[in-house]
């Protein structure tokens, strides 16, 4: 492809993207294809000779789009938002266009340094404790990880390394593997599946403790588990508290959990993957009371802050622990002397992979082109739309609210046996008109309705509710 073809194809691709996004609400949100559909329409071999680029763009509409679930549709109301905005897309485009891989500072100083700076911006926007800022006097700082899952695994591995070292320093006669085999992690049974996965991948026993009636991890439950495990010879090492659980968007109380972790010398990681974005609005910061007792935090701009996947912010109170746990030396990786300057770290020592993209660009573009006030408006609008949806549900006596609207999430169900709600969900999904997903809390199955799309408005909520309630007529007609 020569530069002129590149320019033309890029223009066509941008036009296509804009047309797609601006009309995405007209498409059925869920695809109507059978598993393996693509295999029947894409050639079995790569072309022997170059294709003409003009043939490729039409293939997107004909072959790829039928197999796309439209995350940006106002009728996509499942999971949590997949961040998306034009500034972010342009940032990503430039990241690919520049094509640097910045695992060491020298491999593109701007790639590393912009990341340090924008994570400081973001930490300040959220009013995180000063110790998480590179600009503070302490050894804290932030990095963009690929995902929340990776951030939590990284935190677990650091906690494991730190505590093992500490125990060995106190008693060098102990066996390292024996210590590691006794370490144990805790979280709530409502925490995201990635917490359990981090335990699996990091080879640490993990207890998922029972939530209270509001879906939160309670201090007394944690304390009982710690006491019991210590009596059984285990060593409490790591706690993940969640601010905004995936199921019902519940908030663990850090001001209760934090002091326990401090007293017991346990690493406290805070997973605010989704709801952390709301802390850019001062009125929601009360939900993170106690955050000053944490050791690390993750929040996903790629969920609720309009940044395209992948962009997961991760902050650590003392970056020396991450460097101690993750540094591996090879002569070919050494391109300057010791690198510990807070504005110019070698990020390969902070993460699992070696290669890394210039992800800070899309975060930078999004923060600059929306501004803090633009992002606050966006968050507040989503929260008010969720409250509006809740009022619609409450008006229909066939339904009950399982947990009141929390951030952009509303959990509701049909009154009566779970089967009614499951049947309703099934026929809604078959219609492909709206995408909602299910949750379970205690004995109750429910439907999660989440305000996801950047372009959602009140009419879309009305339309969504109309689709849901008309399908409910099939299960249980409204009484006149
Ligand atoms: N934590 C919470 C509360 C989540 O809701 C999710 C995903 O939905 C995650 C962590 C995992 O994030 P990621 O998909 O970036 O790994």
Low-pLDDT stretches are none
Small molecules (ligands, ions, cofactors) in the structure? pyridoxal-5'-phosphate
Strand proportion: 5-15%
C-alpha geometry = globular
What separation lies between the terminal Cα atoms? 66 Å
The major sheet is characterized as: 7 strands, mixed
Overall helicity: 40-55%
Please, what is the average pLDDT?
95
Alpha-beta classification? alpha/beta
Number of helices: 14
Computed CA radius of gyration, to the nearest angstrom: 24 Å
Number of strands: 11
SSE topology string: HHHHEHHEHEHEHEEHEHHEEHEEH
In what order do the strands lie side by side in the largest sheet?
1-7-6-5-4-2-3
What is the secondary structure topology, with strand pairs?
Blueprint: H1 3-22, H2 56-64, H3 86-98, H4 109-126, E1 141-145, H5 148-170, H6 176-182, E2 183-188, H7 193-201, E3 205-209, H8 219-231, E4 235-242, H9 254-264, E5 267-271, E6 296-299, H10 301-304, E7 312-316, H11 319-326, H12 360-395, E8 399-406, E9 409-414, H13 418-431, E10 437-441, E11 444-450, H14 458-475
Parallel strand pairs: 2-3, 2-4, 4-5, 5-6
Antiparallel strand pairs: 1-7, 6-7, 8-9, 9-11, 10-11
Bound molecules: pyridoxal-5'-phosphate (PLP).
Pyridoxal-5'-phosphate binds next to helix 5.
Question: Would you write up a description of this structure?
Answer:
There is one protein chain. This protein has 480 residues and is of the alpha/beta class. It contains 14 helices and 11 strands. The protein has helices spanning 3-22, 56-64, 86-98, 109-126, 148-170, 176-182, 193-201, 219-231, 254-264, 301-304, 319-326, 360-395, 418-431, 458-475; strands at 141-145, 183-188, 205-209, 235-242, 267-271, 296-299, 312-316, 399-406, 409-414, 437-441, 444-450. The strands form 2 sheets. The chain has a 7-stranded mixed β-sheet, with helices on both faces. A 4-stranded antiparallel β-sheet has the order 8-9-11-10. α9 (254-264) links the parallel β4 and β5. α3 runs antiparallel to α12, α4 (109-126) runs parallel beside α12 (360-395) and α13 (418-431) packs across α14 (458-475). The chain is globular, with a radius of gyration of 24 Å. The model has no long low-confidence stretch (mean pLDDT 95). The structure holds pyridoxal-5'-phosphate (PLP). The site of pyridoxal-5'-phosphate (PLP) has 15 residues, from α5.
């Amino acid at each position: 492809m020569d530069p002129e073809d590149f320019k033309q194809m890029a223009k066509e691709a941008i036009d296509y993207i804009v047309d797609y996004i601006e009309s995405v609400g007209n498409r059925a949100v869920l695809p109507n294809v059978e598993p393996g559909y693509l295999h029947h329409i894409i050639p079995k071999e790569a072309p022997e000779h170059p294709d003409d680029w003009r043939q490729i763009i039409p293939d997107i509409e004909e072959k790829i789009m039928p197999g796309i679930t439209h995350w940006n549709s106002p009728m996509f109301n499942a999971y949590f938002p997949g961040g998306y905005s034009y500034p972010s897309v342009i940032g990503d485009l430039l990241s690919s266009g520049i094509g640097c891989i910045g695992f060491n500072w020298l491999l593109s100083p701007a790639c590393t340094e912009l990341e340090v700076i924008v994570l400081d911006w973001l930490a300040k926007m959220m009013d995180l404790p000063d110790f998480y800022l590179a600009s503070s006097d302490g050894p804290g700082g932030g990095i963009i990880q690929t995902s929340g899952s990776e951030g939590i695994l990284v935190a677990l591995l650091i906690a494991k390394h730190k505590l093992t070292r500490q125990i060995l320093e106190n008693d060098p006669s102990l066996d390292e593997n024996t210590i590691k085999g006794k370490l144990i992690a805790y979280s709530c049974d409502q925490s995201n599946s990635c917490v359990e996965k981090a335990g699996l991948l990091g080879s640490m026993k993990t207890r998922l403790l029972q939530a209270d009636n509001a879906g939160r991890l309670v201090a007394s439950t944690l304390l009982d588990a710690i006491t019991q495990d210590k009596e059984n010879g285990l060593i409490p090492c790591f706690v993940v508290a969640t601010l905004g659980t995936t199921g019902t968007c519940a908030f663990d109380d850090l001001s209760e959990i934090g002091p326990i972790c401090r007293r017991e010398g346990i690493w406290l990681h805070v997973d605010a993957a989704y709801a952390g974005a709301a802390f850019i609005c001062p009125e929601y910061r009360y939900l993170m009371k106690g955050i000053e007792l944490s050791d690390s935090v993750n929040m996903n701009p790629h969920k609720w802050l309009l940044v395209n996947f992948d962009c997961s912010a991760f902050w650590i109170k003392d970056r020396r622990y991450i460097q101690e746990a993750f540094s591996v030396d090879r002569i070919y990786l050494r391109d300057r002397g010791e690198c510990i300057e807070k504005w110019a770290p070698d990020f390969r020592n902070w993460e699992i992979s070696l290669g890394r993209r210039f992800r800070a660009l899309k975060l930078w573009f999004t923060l600059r082109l929306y501004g803090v006030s633009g992002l606050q408006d966006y968050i507040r609008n989503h929260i008010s739309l969720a409250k509006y949806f809740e009022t619609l549900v409450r008006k229909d006596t066939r339904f009950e609210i399982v947990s009141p609207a929390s951030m952009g999430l509303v959990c509701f169900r049909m009154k009566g046996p779970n089967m009614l709600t499951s049947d309703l969900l099934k026929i809604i999904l078959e219609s492909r008109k709206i995408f909602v997903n299910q949750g379970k809390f205690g004995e109750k199955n429910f439907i999660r309705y989440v305000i996801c799309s950047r372009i959602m408005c009140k009419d879309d909520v009305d339309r969504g509710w109309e689709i849901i309630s008309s399908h409910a007529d099939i299960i249980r007609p409204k009484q006149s």
